[in-house]
Amino acid sequence: MGSSERARFADATVERFLTALAAAEPAPSGGAAAALTCAFAAALVEMVASLTAPDGPLPLSAMRERAAAIRSAATRLADEDAAAYGQVIEAWRTTRGDAGRDERVAGALSRAADPPLAIAERAAEAAELGAAVAHGGNPNLRGDALTGALLAEAATLAAVRLVEINLASAPGDCRVQQARDLARRALAARKRALAAGE
To answer: CA 36 to CA 69: how far, in whole Å?
Structure first.
């Protein structure tokens, strides 16, 4: 599933994506994995919301729609992250000493921070939705809701770390703080989810 083929990861089988992820190629990599983990989390929220009686306190229809939007965005972001990281690799492969190489690498890294930041935004929201359905959704599916919240937190934390790595040479970039704020949101959501049923 190299850049020449450029099939959407969302259209691949799980096995095909895992094979591409395991291959001796720089992309897809951590960002794409985080994005699809976020998509799995959002799908679990959709399932729990769909199998919860509509007469409870949760706005289930709105939650399902939002989770579906997150899932769709996350799968798209898997491709965007792989493409952005591919540009970083191309910039790194430029012969050392070439005029402008350092600037090209820095620019590519800065652009490569955007997809994981967007993944973290979606994943933090998915974690919050997961916590909500863990508390107010179908109690028989609490484990699924909790799994969604945990996966979403993991996706958030992974994506946040990628933002930090990509912007390591630009510590004043406001996106670093934005990412860390998202990590705190996801952590709080996970704690709320774990408290469900206690």
So the answer is: 13
Residue type, 176: V
The continuous run of DSSP H or E covering 3 comes out as: none
Q: List the chain pLDDT tens, one digit each, 198 residues.
A: 444 345 688 788 889 889 988 988 887 889 999 999 999 999 999 999 999 999 888 899 999 999 999 999 999 999 999 999 989 988 888 767 777 888 888 899 999 999 999 999 999 999 999 999 999 999 999 999 999 999 999 999 999 999 999 999 887 999 999 999 999 999 999 999 999 977
In angstroms, the CA 84 to CA 162 distance is: 12
Alpha-carbon distance 88 to 106, whole Å? 9
Radius of gyration of the chain (CA): 18
Give the C-alpha distances (Å, rounded to integers) separating 148 from 13, 66, 78, 117, 180: 21, 14, 18, 19, 20
